[in-house]
Amino acid sequence: MIKDLKKEKQTNLRKTIEYQTVYINMDDSGVLHKNDSYCVYGGVVFIGKEARDKFIRQYKSILNGIRCNYCPIKKTNCSHKCPEIKHSNIYPYHKRRLYNLIKKSITFAVIIDNHKVNENIMNNKSSRGRFRDYCQRRIIKEILQNMFSQNRIDPHKPIELIIRIDQQGTSTDTNRLFTYDIRHELTDGIYNLNYDLVYPKIIYSKLKVDLKYVISKNHVCIQASDLIAGKIRSILIANRNEIEKKKELETIDCLLFLP
Question: Residue 47 pLDDT more than 80?
Fold first, then answer.
């Protein structure tokens, strides 16, 4: 009886905890490889389920209006499976419509200059994977720090991170390890032995991390993230002057350059 009451009390306590829910959606453009100039991880962020669901409805509404333009058999209202609309195949005027919606949300990107990455990392597949995780972890931290500085969320109140990343060759164990690394850096802080530097924690309350790798064709927010990542990389490799590039990059809410 006493155990049942204690269990019920703990259950009720958990129910009273209100989490600030942050949705981070991420896709890539370019490859983390010495033969490519830039690799970009970018995407969209939402604070709260209501904001995310509203975006999904609006994005799907635009997709429903343009998807038949990308049908290989050029039919409308058919049972044919629609192709995924991506940065690589979308028409400019359709891209503008989607991007005008996307930029109303919080956007982010981490830009990796491949030519500046240490050769020991680039020449080893496992090292590139760890560096990729490091870059993604850094941009997640940067996003949260920006939100804290703008008083959008409170680091002293419970936070739930729902992270969705475009599917890649990632094992379940690696997924768990990456989730642990995110929690560790945000709630415990990190000590860099190589440079004798301490990066303090930035979250001072409970943190839940829900990380999944998803198939982009089934996930609208990842499709939107593809447009952001693709746009950023297109700006970087375009044959234009640096002032123009910088002006366009400034439209992204949270931008990080590595290494």
Answer: yes
pLDDT at 239: 86
Residue identified by tokens 């905890």 is 17
What pLDDT, in 10s, does the model give residues 190-215? Answer: 866 655 567 899 999 999 999 999 99
> Which string of b and e fits 42-62 if b means at least 16 CB within 10 Å?
bbbbbbeeebbeebeeebeee
**Least confident stretch, 5-9, 18-22, 147-151, 255-259:** 5-9
Length of the chain: 259
| β-pairing verdict for 254-258 and 106-113 | parallel
Per-residue H/E/C for the chain: CHHHHHHHHHHHHHHHCCCEEEEEEEEEECCCCCCCCEEEEEEEEEECHHHHHHHHHHHHHHHHHHHHHHCCCCCCCCCCCCCCCCCCCCCHHHHHHHHHHHCCCEEEEEEEEHHHCCHHHHCCHHHHHHHHHHHHHHHHHHHHHHHHHCCCCCCCCCEEEEEEEECCCCCHHHHHHHHHHHHHHHHCCEEECCCCEEECCCCCCCEEEEEEEECHHHCHHHHHHHHHHHHHHHHHHCCCCHHHHHHHHCCCCEEEEEC
Q: How confident is the model at residue 10 (pLDDT cuts 50, 70, 90)?
A: low
